[in-house]
Amino acid sequence: MSQAFKHTPPATQPLTSKTNVADPALWESYSYFPIFEQMRQEDPVHYCAESTYGPYWSVTRYEDIMAVDTNHHVYSSDAHLGGIIIDDGIQNDPENDFKAVNFIAMDKPKHDEQRKSVNGITNPNNLQHFGEIIRKRTSNLLDSLPVGEEFDWVSTVSIELTTQMLATMFDFPFEDRHKLTRWSDVSTAEPGSGIVETQQQRIDELMEMAAYFSDLQQSRKDKPDNIDLLTMMTHSPAMANMPPEEFLGNLSLLIVGGNDTTRNSMTGGVFGFSLFPEQWDKMVADPTLIDNAVAEIIRWQTPLAHMRRTALEDAILGGKQIRKGDKVVMWYASGNRDTSIFDDPDKIIIDRKNARRHLSFGFGIHRCMGNRIGELQLRILWEEVLKRFSRIEVTGEPELTNSNFVKGYTSLPVKLHAL
Ligand code: HEM
Fold first, then answer.
1. Which atom of ligand 1 lies closest to the CA of 378?
2. Is 417 helix (H, G, I), strand (E, B) or coil?
3. Could you tell me the CATH number of the domain that includes residue 389?
4. Which of 188, 334, 361, 380 is buried most, with the most CB atoms less than 10 Å from its CB?
5. Domain span including residue 262
6. pLDDT, one tens digit for every residue, the chain (419 residues)
7. Is the Cβ atom of 256 under 6 angstroms away from ligand 1?
């Protein structure tokens, strides 16, 4: 499989209105890039007339994705219209009477009010505060790893570090931090997916999360200056008295938002360097490239493959007639490989001049709120790795996350080499 990761092979079928690039089978087998390349060349705003997700538009070129993402007047994120992923899913299932709501799936003005309540988490002083904690925790974890023995990078490093970061952002009891990983998984799980068996089990676990946070919130009421997301929610007018489904929904957003994304960028870097080892050598020779390498890995990995919108009115996009109510999917995974913006886009090039132009954080009013926290964690990880190890050898094939939304890894076997 590794060759396919290094270079997109040619597409094998002609494009038709039945071509469904969101088909889970393509994502499981890492076969979507040839179709995206074909779409960008032949039909960049492609209509799939029939799929398990219903009909939808695929937006595959960089500039068209930007046009959708920055036009919230026409392209809505509202959960009641379908929200932000291709699958209307349990959120819009009429059988599901438990609908958590959060600001990534809201339009103006409510979106802006709620986002403003927690956005300050990434101000420079807070980043400095978090940076010190992250460095300490990252160093401790790296020091505990076995050298010369095979282990799984995903569970041992990526999941553990992002869980620790979640605990840091919420100032959550450290010894209970694994609850956060579980709640993150449960928040996005479909019943029967292996994570939860039934919708009732999912609801019960999310209620447990709400109760836990509600208790924790009591301890923040008289500490308005504490630096954490829960304190910010507790003391902001727009979030202090939310109905339970919004309290729960926004907690889930803040837990999920930074979890899989940063986790898969951590693993993507290790895997990417194994495919392009000369880039690792370049970083070892010049660690000042780490900042740009982080942006380039996030471009190459694209941890969230897409965001979806629903058209609020008729519009023309890339010469195509979009109708009010249409489902429009921005494929960041495709835009980040658009050769009109990025030369040789399948390759990781850590000193790529325009790496930071990537689409992985989105654009417009929903642009990732935690981008600087994610980048900070990744920069510190690579700085601390370089102080300790000469190489991270990938010793087997990665296992991929089975999703057309979260683009990542469930395991990656590695062996560390000492300096
Ligand atoms: C490499 C890491 C990350 C990636 C690739 C990523 C990606 C994204 C993307 C694609 C969006 C939607 C953008 C759009 O619709 O235009 C988003 C939104 C968001 N992200 Fe991130 N994210 C990352 C890290 C984080 C972290 C660490 C946090 C922690 C707080 C976070 C919190 C959020 C929130 C709250 C939103 C919703 C923003 C809004 O609707 O206004 N993300 N992220």
1. 1
2. strand
3. 1.10.630.10
4. 334
5. 2-418
6. 578 899 999 999 999 999 999 999 999 999 999 999 999 999 999 999 999 999 999 999 999 999 999 999 999 999 999 999 999 865 556 556 566 789 999 999 999 999 999 999 999 999 999 999 999 999 999 999 999 999 999 999 999 999 999 999 999 999 999 999 999 888 877 788 788 998 889 889 999 999 999 999 999 998 888 889 999 999 988 888 888 888 889 999 999 888 899 999 999 999 999 999 999 999 999 999 999 999 999 999 999 999 999 999 999 999 999 999 999 999 999 999 999 999 999 999 999 999 999 999 999 999 999 999 999 999 999 999 999 999 999 999 999 998 999 999 999 999 999 99
7. no
114: Cα within 13 Å, side-chain hemisphere: 23
Opening angle at CA 200, ends 241 and 246, nearest 5:
15
Distance from the alpha carbon of residue 338 to the mean position of ligand 1, in angstroms = 22
Question: Assign residue 325 a region: left if phi > 0, alpha if psi is -120 to 50, beta otherwise?
Answer: left
Q: What separation in angstroms does the CA of 113 have from each of 202, 241, 244, 365, 408?
A: 29, 13, 18, 12, 32
Tell whether omega for the bond before 109 is within 30 degrees of 0, i.e. cis. yes
**What's the Cα-to-Cα distance from 94 to each of 84, 190, 342, 365, rounded to whole Å?**
18, 15, 43, 29
Distance, CA of 184 to chain centre? 12
Dihedral, CA of residue 50, residue 55, residue 60 and residue 65, to nearest 10: 180
Q: Which atom of ligand 1 is nearest to the CA of 253?
A: 35
- Quick one: which atom of ligand 1 is closest to the CA of 377? 27
CB 308 within 8 A of CB 330: yes
**Cβ neighbours of residue 352 under 8 Å, at least 6 residues apart?**
292, 296, 299, 342, 343
| 45 ligand 1 Cβ < 6 A | no
Q: pLDDT tens digit string along 154-196?
A: 999 999 999 999 999 999 999 999 999 999 888 877 788 788 9
- Whether ligand 1 lies within 6 angstroms of the CB of 360 is answered as yes
Task: Please tell me the total count of domains within the chain.
Answer: 1
Q: Give the pLDDT score at 101.
A: 86
